[in-house]
Design brief:
The protein has 1 helix and 5 strands. It is of the alpha+beta class. The model has no long low-confidence stretch (mean pLDDT 85). The longest helix is centred in the middle third of the chain and has 13 residues, at 47-59.
Length: 107
């Protein structure tokens, strides 16, 4: 009876970060204007309020597209959660393991 040759593998922990983008229109109304008029009497947009309103509108948007995806070694390497005897594995920072930097994941 022939036995299959033994094979070995190394478990690594990776992380993937996806950057998405969307475009939207922010209405110019009192929600994004400065509280007080300028010295010349004009009303100006408050950049902080503009971005806050844009983020609020974007959170409800479903029109997001993937702009970029990066895959990199996770900074903390540890045993996979399905390994029963986790206490024998020690967590080590990725900086100690001489791992490569992030690589682009083809979309």
């Amino acid at each position: 009876m022939d036995e299959a040759p033994r094979t070995y593998s190394i478990s690594v922990r990776l992380q993937r970060a996806t950057t998405e983008e969307t475009y939207l229109s922010v209405p110019v109304d009192e929600a994004i204007m400065q509280d007080e008029p300028a010295a010349d009497g004009s009303h100006r947009i408050d950049p902080g309020k503009l971005w806050a309103e844009a983020i609020r509108l974007a959170e409800a948007s479903t029109n997001w597209t993937i702009e970029d995806r990066q895959v990199a070694p996770h900074p903390i390497q540890k045993a996979p959660p399905w390994i029963a005897d986790q206490h024998t594995e020690s967590s080590r920072p990725a900086s100690e393991l001489n791992l490569p930097t992030a690589v682009a994941d083809p979309l």
